[in-house]
Amino acid sequence: MAALFEVTDLDRRIYTEELRDFLPDSFVDIHTHVWRDQDKTHSKEEYARVVSWPALVAKDCPVEDLVESYRLMFPGKAVTPLMFSIVGAADDADLMNGYVRDCARAHKFPALLFAKPEWSGEDVERKIASGGFHGVKVYLNLAPAYIPRTEIRIFDFLPLHQLHELDRKGRVVMLHIPRDGRLRDPVNIEQMLEIERSFPRVRLIIAHVGRAYCDEDVGDAFDRLSGTKDMLFDFAANTNDRVFERLLRAFGPDRVLFGSDLPITRMRMRRTCDSGRYVNIVPRGLYGDVSGDPNMGEVDPPESEMLTTFMYEELLAMKKACARAGVDRTGVEAIFNINARRVLGI
Questions:
Q1: What is the per-residue pLDDT for 1?
Q2: CATH topology of domain 9-266+311-344
Q3: Which residue in 38, 85, 88, 302 has its CB near the most CB atoms, within 10 A?
Q4: What is the pLDDT of residues 281-300, one digit of tens each?
Q5: Residue ranges per domain, the chain?
Q6: Residue in 200, 129, 138, 150 with CA at minimum distance from that of residue 170
């Protein structure tokens, strides 16, 4: 049986020399996707509102692939994932959430319900409780179809009627914020603040550091959010050590969570920024024809032979940020383990 993905000598050296001793022996990955290709509709509208390049890495990620990814990437470590699906507007959400529920029960992993905004608050809570989920994952692609992509707001896909019920039960909300301005967008910032003010029992996680992949994405967001006390940030699929350092200085390690966004962090790459737009640099031809994608670039040997995985790039960036921000071993343990266990109650 072929390996799920190649682990190169470069990968092994980076893990052994840079990451193995930096990471705790056991840790939690707060942001992972689990789904089966057979359950997807593959509609033409699937990527109308979001980037399509992640689909080049993996057509699906059954739970067995998730577990195998940890075995290959983190030898000697024990990783507990928080799992959720990846539901498109045309997909059968109950079917896909049901697969995650069954995987969570079989492997004793925590999981989130992928919630659709048209569900009532009572429906969401019933689905959470019956499936043993810890809360919800919400996503901008499920906002009503009539709203232009650039005008989608958080409350268009995380509606107030659901937030009231999620707050009543103190549920986890994994939030991927919308809008081209990303973290710096004033509408995003105001609605994030409103969630904290009006729904204080919601355990809000802002995914990907608010999609602040480039320095320009931050703006004055950390200053405006500095008065918050509860919202947390995961740094899934982000490799910007300067953004990470600013995050740590603004909020401290107790409000930062490790997330991978597997399976896409299996990608072999490094990320650069070009006038505020992130670009994933990959080996030429490894992921097919990417010439038409503004978020993708290619290199040839010998440069391509020096590319490691997206996962390791993310972790190396956080290691640099921790060193510069003065985060000690206790802080690293909080980022990778303690904070997530506190939020999930595990």
A1: 64
A2: TIM Barrel (3.20.20)
A3: 85
A4: 999 999 999 999 999 999 99
A5: 9-266+311-344, 269-307
A6: 200
SS3 281: strand
Distance, CA of 158 to CA of 325 (rounded, Å): 33
Whole-angstrom distance, CA of residue 104 vs CA of residue 101: 5
Q: pLDDT, tens digit, for every residue of 248-265?
A: 999 999 999 999 999 999
How many angstroms separate the CA atoms of 270 and 265, rounded?
11
Distance CA 163, CA 154 (A): 11
Query: How do strand 296-299 and strand 26-33 relate by DSSP bridges?
Result: unpaired
Instruction: Please tell me the pTM assigned to this model.
Output: 0.96
Residue 313 near residue 239 (C-beta atoms within 8 A): yes
Residue that the structure tokens 């997909």 belong to: 91
End-to-end CA separation in angstroms for the chain? 35
**Residues 136, 148: Cα–Cα separation, whole Å:** 24
3-state secondary structure 38-87: HHCCCCCCCCCCCCCHHHHCCCCECHHHHHHHHHHHCCCCEEEEEEECCC
